[in-house]
Design brief:
The protein is mainly α. It is built from 3 helices and no strands. α1 (about 5-45) runs antiparallel to α2 and α2 (about 50-70) packs antiparallel against α3 (about 80-90). It is elongated, with a radius of gyration of 19 Å. About 10% of the residues are buried.
Length: about 90
């Protein structure tokens, strides 16, 4: 194998590792957003304010973690996700 082939192979391996990490982060963000959605539905049917406070706290935690996960994503995707997460946080 030539030096150029080794270099191309190493670069492809690096891109694969980055893609795998980004995919994992996106899956986690999806799970967190689903959790936020579930908690919002639970809040809509809640009668106790203490329960609502717990849900709101967990929602804030999930959104903060999701926002943190976006830091390692592609520069084109990051602003789209962070914008949506900030919208969620505003509500």
């Amino acid at each position: 194998m030539t030096h150029r082939q080794e270099s191309v192979r190493a670069a492809a391996g690096g891109r694969l590792i980055e893609s795998t990490a980004a995919y994992s982060a996106l899956q986690r963000v999806e799970l967190l957003v689903t959790s936020v959605s579930d908690r919002l539905q639970q809040i809509a049917g809640a009668y106790e304010t203490d329960g609502v406070r717990v849900h709101v706290f967990r929602i804030q935690q999930a959104l903060a973690e999701a926002r943190q996960l976006t830091t390692g994503l592609d520069q084109r995707l990051r602003p789209l996700l962070t914008g949506r997460l900030d919208e969620f946080r505003g509500h």
